[in-house]
Amino acid sequence: MEPILLEPAAKGLYGELKVPGDKSISHRAVMFGAISSGITTAKNFLPGEDCLNTVSCFRKLGVDIETSGTEVRINGKGLDGLKEFEGLLDVGNSGTTIRLMMGLLSGRPFTSHITGDESIAKRPMNRVTSPLLEMGAKIEGRENGKYAPITISGGRLNALTYSMPVASAQVKSAVLLAGLQAEGETVIKELAPTRDHTERMIRLFGGNVTTSGKNISIKGGQQLKAADIEVPGDISSAAFFLAAGSIVPGSEILLRNVGLNWTRSGIFDVMEKMGANLSIDRKEESFEPVGDIRINYSKLKGTTIEGGLIPRLIDELPIIALLGTQAEGETIIRDAAELRVKETDRIETVAAELRKLGAQIETTDDGMVITGGTNLHGGTVSSHGDHRIGMMLAIASLICKKEVTLEDPASIAISYPNFFTHLAKLR
Ligand code: S3P
């Protein structure tokens, strides 16, 4: 796709939006629908490229899945309904798809080959391979199973007590999906709480998983039953408009039906600490909490983001870095080395691209130090194929003095296909 020219905002952003369905929950709706018995329907499903790749992989594994816009109907036949696919299961750019499928397919009695794009080939898979090998799985990949393409010769698994060396919901979920098929009880010990969508979904599908402090336990041999799901709006997509509303003077935006799961809502804690004018207008409890969020422009101040807060806002750190450039004083991000193994090295990419617009950011091993109160001047930047970097730069363009040319904007469709239409609606 051609580069796109983005004009600065002439006035405040105003209006309301319903951001698309949550990416993490949409993936899981397809996966759990596929391994349950009966018909699962998911409404407000995210038809972004990552989730469509999950659909295509499960179709290849023999599952009948119909999609129509934001509705998906999955005709699951239980775990045994999954059948061997001799070709390649291609996850595209999706880390969630490959890692969760690795856990799932380790317990299936057939061989699977999983691959993805250039970015996936560089992302560490050993964090998943390692506990799965301990459970008895047979997995091969480049550099001793560290990188995709991955081949799994599935079969019987033993339960495992596993202390996770990284705070990662993808690793936790892969081990839970393997644990669901293993003999005995699998216990996972988390370093810090990470998103708990897998646990919630197992319960919604009639399974049993217990959480006690940082320990999560699951017994093998459970059969799941189909469920109907209304996917909440993605808080990680909403975050771009929360940021836009708080840095473009005169803005007022209402975001409807956004997922408010505590394991994902660290962005609220940070924005409140920075002095943002943000309020939750309505909150409802379903299998995931959802509500409406209102944001108005206000002056921001710098803050420090670290420790257990990091996993609760890991995908929001690129847009938080932009907020930092506009706040008064310094914003420090630390304990976020995980950013280096996302779709791109998000520490270096965020800093390099924002510097091209005039930001002052120093990178550290595990984060960034952002100088506040800088004027952004415009220029040419690139998403580097990373959807969240692309959206962050598009929001940055609103407060630049001159136009921004964004290269590789197509990556935004990975998680937010109608992002530019929504942005135009608020202008
Ligand atoms: C995700 C977990 C997070 C997040 C990713 C989606 C998930 O990754 O960054 O966008 O759906 O489980 P990690 O678990 O690797 O931190």
TrEMBL record:
<dbReference type="GO" id="GO:0009423">
    <property type="term" value="P:chorismate biosynthetic process"/>
</dbReference>
<dbReference type="InterPro" id="IPR001986">
    <property type="entry name" value="Enolpyruvate_Tfrase_dom"/>
</dbReference>
<keyword id="KW-0057">Aromatic amino acid biosynthesis</keyword>
<dbReference type="GO" id="GO:0009073">
    <property type="term" value="P:aromatic amino acid family biosynthetic process"/>
</dbReference>
<feature type="binding site">
    <location>
        <position position="95"/>
    </location>
    <ligand>
        <name>phosphoenolpyruvate</name>
    </ligand>
</feature>
<dbReference type="GO" id="GO:0005737">
    <property type="term" value="C:cytoplasm"/>
</dbReference>
<feature type="binding site">
    <location>
        <position position="346"/>
    </location>
    <ligand>
        <name>phosphoenolpyruvate</name>
    </ligand>
</feature>
<dbReference type="InterPro" id="IPR006264">
    <property type="entry name" value="EPSP_synthase"/>
</dbReference>
<feature type="binding site">
    <location>
        <position position="342"/>
    </location>
    <ligand>
        <name>3-phosphoshikimate</name>
    </ligand>
</feature>
<keyword id="KW-0963">Cytoplasm</keyword>
<feature type="binding site">
    <location>
        <position position="28"/>
    </location>
    <ligand>
        <name>3-phosphoshikimate</name>
    </ligand>
</feature>
<feature type="domain" description="Enolpyruvate transferase">
    <location>
        <begin position="12"/>
        <end position="423"/>
    </location>
</feature>
<feature type="binding site">
    <location>
        <position position="315"/>
    </location>
    <ligand>
        <name>3-phosphoshikimate</name>
    </ligand>
</feature>
<feature type="binding site">
    <location>
        <position position="388"/>
    </location>
    <ligand>
        <name>phosphoenolpyruvate</name>
    </ligand>
</feature>
<feature type="active site" description="Proton acceptor">
    <location>
        <position position="315"/>
    </location>
</feature>
<dbReference type="Pfam" id="PF00275">
    <property type="entry name" value="EPSP_synthase"/>
</dbReference>
<dbReference type="GO" id="GO:0008652">
    <property type="term" value="P:amino acid biosynthetic process"/>
</dbReference>
<dbReference type="InterPro" id="IPR023193">
    <property type="entry name" value="EPSP_synthase_CS"/>
</dbReference>
<feature type="binding site">
    <location>
        <position position="168"/>
    </location>
    <ligand>
        <name>3-phosphoshikimate</name>
    </ligand>
</feature>
<keyword id="KW-0808">Transferase</keyword>
<dbReference type="InterPro" id="IPR036968">
    <property type="entry name" value="Enolpyruvate_Tfrase_sf"/>
</dbReference>
<feature type="binding site">
    <location>
        <position position="123"/>
    </location>
    <ligand>
        <name>phosphoenolpyruvate</name>
    </ligand>
</feature>
<protein>
    <recommendedName>
        <fullName>3-phosphoshikimate 1-carboxyvinyltransferase</fullName>
        <ecNumber>2.5.1.19</ecNumber>
    </recommendedName>
</protein>
<comment type="function">
    <text>Catalyzes the transfer of the enolpyruvyl moiety of phosphoenolpyruvate (PEP) to the 5-hydroxyl of shikimate-3-phosphate (S3P) to produce enolpyruvyl shikimate-3-phosphate and inorganic phosphate.</text>
</comment>
<dbReference type="InterPro" id="IPR013792">
    <property type="entry name" value="RNA3'P_cycl/enolpyr_Trfase_a/b"/>
</dbReference>
<feature type="binding site">
    <location>
        <position position="23"/>
    </location>
    <ligand>
        <name>phosphoenolpyruvate</name>
    </ligand>
</feature>
<feature type="binding site">
    <location>
        <position position="23"/>
    </location>
    <ligand>
        <name>3-phosphoshikimate</name>
    </ligand>
</feature>
<feature type="binding site">
    <location>
        <position position="170"/>
    </location>
    <ligand>
        <name>3-phosphoshikimate</name>
    </ligand>
</feature>
<comment type="subunit">
    <text>Monomer.</text>
</comment>
<comment type="similarity">
    <text>Belongs to the EPSP synthase family.</text>
</comment>
<feature type="binding site">
    <location>
        <position position="24"/>
    </location>
    <ligand>
        <name>3-phosphoshikimate</name>
    </ligand>
</feature>
<dbReference type="GO" id="GO:0003866">
    <property type="term" value="F:3-phosphoshikimate 1-carboxyvinyltransferase activity"/>
</dbReference>
<comment type="pathway">
    <text>Metabolic intermediate biosynthesis; chorismate biosynthesis; chorismate from D-erythrose 4-phosphate and phosphoenolpyruvate: step 6/7.</text>
</comment>
<feature type="binding site">
    <location>
        <position position="170"/>
    </location>
    <ligand>
        <name>phosphoenolpyruvate</name>
    </ligand>
</feature>
<keyword id="KW-0028">Amino-acid biosynthesis</keyword>
